[in-house]
Fold this sequence. Notes:
Blueprint: H1 5-13, H2 28-39, H3 43-55, H4 57-61, E1 70-72, H5 82-100, E2 104-109, E3 113-114, E4 119-122, H6 136-151, E5 157-161, H7 166-175, E6 184-188, E7 191-193, E8 195-196, E9 204-206, E10 209-210, E11 212-214, H8 219-225, H9 235-241, E12 246-251, H10 262-270, E13 275-281, E14 291-295, E15 298-302, H11 309-312, E16 325-334, H12 335-343, E17 351-355, E18 359-360, E19 366-367, E20 374-378, E21 391-395, H13 398-401, H14 414-431, E22 435-436, E23 448-450, H15 458-462, E24 470-471, E25 475-477
Parallel strand pairs: 2-5, 2-12, 5-6, 13-21, 22-24, 23-25
Antiparallel strand pairs: 1-14, 3-4, 7-11, 8-20, 9-10, 12-16, 13-16, 14-15, 17-20, 18-19
Amino acid sequence: MPADPALVDRLAQFGQDHVLRFWDELDPEGRNRLIGQLERLDLPRLAQMIDRLVLSPSKEEALAIDPQQVEPVDVRRVPQTDSERVIRRRAAERGEAALAAGEVAAVLVAGGQGTRLGFDAPKGTYPIGPVSGASLFQMHAEKLVALGRRFGKPIPLYIMTSPENHEATTSFFAQHQQFGLDHVRFFVQGQLPAVDAASGKLLLAAKDSLALSPDGHGGTITALAARDHPDQASCLDDMSDRGIQTLFYFQVDNPLVQICDPAYLGLHLMAEADISFKVVEKQRPEEKVGVVVQVDGHAQVIEYSDLPTELAERREPDGGLQLWAGSIAIHCFDRAFLERLVSGGGQLPVHRALKKVPHLGDSGRRVEPEGPNAVKFETFIFDALPLADRWSIVETERAIEFEPLKNATGPDSPATVRQRLSDLFGDWLEQAGAQVLRRGDGSVPFGIEISPLFALDAAELKQKIEPGLVVDRPIVLGP
């Protein structure tokens, strides 16, 4: 049975009909799989992406920002004065009111595998608890359960998976009875095809499958608006039905994130912002975090790989970095803002990544490239910032909210994350009146773990332990 002539003509129109070259060898199931992938392609948009990012990359380079136009962005710094602390307390009250009214949902981006960790499973299932071995998913979920109890309203959780880890992720939550969460909904990240870096031709992963890869964390927005089935509401529609006004967005690899932080929510709401960012002060010019800046009156993020050395090393008279506001992928979104983006066709810009992509050659044999041979396309969530009319940038302290899990060893590894968690929980215990054994450098020499179901913060912990408690060995405090 030949392929649909209309499909063949449409592919030929864009120079991509070669993907059907193994058609006659496919069984009905394989043909349906390939047709389904091809029908989901936006070929005109793909052709534009290929022209701009593959065949004519110099066009992209010509759009580079003039360093003289880049300025620091206004940031709500960590409070240092009494008046600043009063403003932060008022913001917290506003955020608490939104939580008590059931107007806040959490969006967790969890499409990654633990490949760099040497862990063959979804990264969210990694056992990171310093004592109990609680998974990243468990630590995040328990924070939401505890917040729901504190404010009297459960916080809905929306988890973005990838096609590769969706089944494993949903099974993990089912095995753990959703960790006690009242409402969890999973949605799948979109994919974009990889193309040959020289010709822009689509690559095949198999005779019946395109070489596809996740479309980046910017795909969260379109995935939230997508319908898995015609008769099922999208996640955004589901939020609207529930009266959700504000989305708290975070990524799975940072167990320190203060989920639905009331003060941060309040500052976002008081600013009537479309989008808000939490930032930390960069430690050094070459640190691999995107920087929030201002260009022609609009806030935007320059990814670390795109930040010219001249800008990265630019300093203030006191010696501090001028462009210091490092983005840590913790955001608030106004739901209506995201709805305007998707309904108005406002697509986030697409970026290119040159990668090694195994594929089928013309003979049908698998090709394992020795070097980068293909361009993958991806979008970044922070590219929504320049599309916002109003925004809020809020500083947080690195020691209490940013220690991502990325590598098997060295920085951002299980060892550094568990140490940071233990040090943080040690601080809580000391603030609550306990004595904690420390090394000479101030770090804790053993694991300390406090479940969110026992205490969400130092103030709550103080109500639950006896003053004078001595902590000189591993300890876990749980429900």
